[in-house]
Each structure stands twice: as structure tokens, then as C-alpha cells.
Design brief:
alpha+beta; four-stranded antiparallel sheet; 383 residues; 13 strands; Beta-lactamase; 2 domains; Methane Monooxygenase Hydroxylase, Chain G, domain 1
């Protein structure tokens, strides 16, 4: 580990408790080598046991980065184009409607494009409690698949004209269905063949595919109580993935993984798309395109209301640092990330072949409070 990372170890040990975080496991990689790994705090709060090094975590929205990479693989092969209308792949998205205010519904003028899914500019909502979704659950007994879920989303009115606004919605879930149509394979099977297996990610999958031995390694799941400042134990199914009994393989937030696996993934992106195994999952040019901010000023305001701080924008499934000075951190231009609501966090810096993954298992925990600090201490250490 070396003395240069003593400050990072100290920062984690000191600030995890100060910010009310129960525990984290942080791995930093540079040019295919793990240069730092440190775990602090508890994995199981009740038993006061540390985070297991091979624990399996719910990725939540960190799943979106993987879905974005899968989509760009199709772009590279010419099988999908970013400006293609979504209706070419899922015809139910033709002739979409837009909701204005409480009651008004009007036809959309613009088609949803594939790029609109990846940039969250389609107008698709993230509301799980709609008449359409309730009907889907009732009709199927909750056993619907990925494409069926996407077709249900197509029945719901959009929040704005496609391409004009920004809203965090079921976009990546629909993207997963597009990948199924384009590949002729189930979404999870495609990811395994083209990303997970090439990079040696043996513990990354949708929860239904976990073996009994893997299920025993799932990190306990907690929910942060803002009023008490404490984490309370909840079920293991990913929070926000409202359909745990379904066959729906959600590209927006349902994958599970380990620190080792996800670190191998972000390391590949930081190193031009080639993993430590030697397998290439994407080209440098595609990674560059993913990491360009595609939002205008009004759309950035919506993004920053959600989570990302000033200086970070939104590209194709990731939040790039397009104005490093505005971030008030040491992060360089071109680095990008996207976290999960359960506390997992990541960073990819292609310019320095640097990446990190931080595992955490408390939903809505105050992990974002330490993210900027971790960025600063890492970059101070690597120089």
C-alpha cells in the first residue's frame, strides 16, 4: 500500500463514523493494478462484524454504467445507432403521449431516440406506482420479463417532449429491452457473454441467478433513518427494484456484484476498454463519447437537483467532470462516475488509467458526503 496512501486510510477510518456511514470497502486501481484496498466499519451492524472482502452487494444505479457500456458495444458493431428512433426496436414506443399538468395529455412531436434513453432525456418517468404498472403486476402475477416491462412503460405518458428535458427514469430498463431485441438474447445472458465473462466477473449477475453459496455472501441490507441517524435492517432485495419476484432483468438498478468484480469493470474502462484479462469490452473512442456532457444549462439544473454537483454533467449513462474547477475537487476533466442508492460508488479516470470502487450497504446513507473527500485524498496521493 505504501505511505502515500496512509492519508486515505486515515480519512476512511476517521470520517466513516463522523458522517454516520456504517462501513465501506474501497479499492483503487491504476493501470490494471490494485494500488489500495481498505475496509472499515461494519458489514453486519447487529453482530458488529466487518465487511467481508468477497461480500456481494446490490449495485442499484451503478448498474446503469454496465448497461451503457453494453449499449455502446452495439453502437460499435453498427447494430444500434444513437439517433435511431426507439420505436424501431420496440414499436410500442411509436406515437407517445406527453402529460401536461394534472390532466392534459397531448401527442409527442419528437420520437424517443436511443440517445435519449442513455442521457435520461426521453421524458420517461421513474414512478413504480402507476395504473399501467399496477395492471401489469395484476395480470402477470409479478412474473413479467424485461421486454414486457418496457412495453408497459410505453403505455405511460412522458413528462416532457423527448430530447428537451432531463429526468431520472426507467430509461436504462428500456435500454436493456432494446439490447434483448438487438441481440436475440436475454439481457443478463448478453452481459455475461460480452462483459462479465471476458473480464472474469464471476459474481456479477441478476439476483435470480445467484447460487446458494453466493446468496450466503450477500451483504446485509440496511436503510438509513434520517430522523434517528441510524441504519435499520431491511430485506436483501434491491430497494427501488420493485418487482423482486419477476423475471425482469433491470438495466437501471438490479445487478449485484463484489468489490473485486466491479473494480475489474471500472479498471477496464479506465484503461481504454481493455481489462486486466486482456479482453477488450469497448474502444477508447466509445469511452470518450460516453464521457462527454450532453446536457444544456436547463437540463443540468435538473441533474444537479438530483445528486450530481456543479461541474459534473451527464453523458451516455455516466456523469463526467466537464468543468473540474466548478466541482471544487481535484478530479480532472474527463473522469466520470455514477453511484447507487445503496451507497456503492465508483470513478473512472481514463486520462490517468485510474479507477476506484467503493462498496457500502446502506440505502440513502450519507456516503455522498465523503465522496468529494475521497476524490481529493486519492488524487493528492497519486500526484
Amino acid at each position: 500500500m505504501g505511505n502515500r496512501f496512509e492519508s486515505l486510510k486515515k480519512y476512511l477510518d476517521t470520517n466513516i463514523a463522523r458522517f454516520g456511514v456504517q462501513g465501506v470497502d474501497l479499492s483503487v486501481w491504476q493501470d490494471h493494478q490494485e494500488i489500495f484496498r481498505h475496509s472499515t466499519g461494519y458489514g453486519d451492524i447487529e453482530k458488529k462484524t466487518p465487511l467481508a472482502p468477497d461480500a456481494i452487494y446490490n449495485l442499484y444505479s451503478a448498474t446503469k454504467v454496465i448497461t451503457g457500456v453494453a449499449a455502446m458495444q452495439f453502437v460499435e458493431r453498427g447494430d444500434i445507432r444513437l439517433l435511431d428512433p426507439l420505436e424501431w426496436y420496440i414499436p410500442e414506443f411509436k406515437n407517445m403521449k406527453i402529460k401536461y399538468g394534472t390532466f392534459a395529455i397531448a401527442p409527442a412531436k419528437n420520437p424517443i431516440r436511443v440517445a435519449d434513453l442513455l442521457t435520461m432525456t426521453s421524458g420517461i418517468t421513474y414512478d413504480p406506482d402507476t395504473p399501467e404498472i399496477r395492471a401489469l403486476i395484476q395480470e402477470t402475477g409479478g412474473t413479467f420479463d424485461t421486454l414486457t416491462f418496457a412495453k408497459t412503460i410505453a403505455k405511460m405518458p412522458l413528462l416532457f417532449e423527448p430530447g428537451t428535458g432531463w429526468n431520472y427514469g426507467y430509461n436504462m430498463d428500456v435500454m436493456g429491452a432494446v439490447i434483448e431485441v438487438a441481440s436475440g438474447k436475454k439481457f443478463g445472458a448478453y452481459l455475461k457473454e460480452h462483459i462479465f465473462d471476458p473480464l472474469g466477473m464471476t459474481d456479477t449477475m441478476f439476483p435470480r441467478s445467484l447460487s446458494p453459496a453466493q446468496r450466503a455472501r450477500r451483504a446485509p441490507q440496511y436503510l438509513y433513518n434520517v430522523e434517528t441517524g441510524k441504519a435499520e435492517r431491511v430485506g436483501d432485495d434491491p430497494y427501488g427494484c420493485e418487482f423482486p419476484a419477476s423475471m425482469h432483468e433491470g438495466g437501471g438498478g438490479q445487478l449485484v456484484s463484489t468489490v473485486r468484480d466491479y473494480s475489474a469493470f471500472v479498471d477496464a474502462l479506465a484503461c481504454g476498454g481493455t481489462g486486466k484479462t486482456g479482453a477488450r469490452i469497448l474502444t477508447e473512442r466509445s469511452i470518450w463519447l460516453m464521457s462527454q456532457n450532453r446536457l444544456n444549462e436547463a437540463q443540468l439544473l435538473e441533474l444537479h437537483r438530483l445528486s450530481a454537483s456543479a461541474g459534473f454533467g451527464y453523458g451516455l449513462g455516466v456523469a463526467p467532470a466537464f468543468d473540474p474547477a466548478a466541482t471544487c475537487t481535484l478530479v480532472p476533466k474527463g473522469a466520470f462516475y455514477w453511484p447507487g442508492v445503496g451507497g456503492v460508488h465508483n470513478l473512472v479516470d481514463p486520462g490517468n488509467k485510474l479507477s476506484f470502487f467503493m462498496a457500502h450497504n446502506t440505502i440513502f446513507g450519507p456516503v455522498p458526503a465523503i465522496f468529494h473527500g475521497i476524490l481529493n485524498v486519492i488524487y493528492a496521493a497519486v500526484g
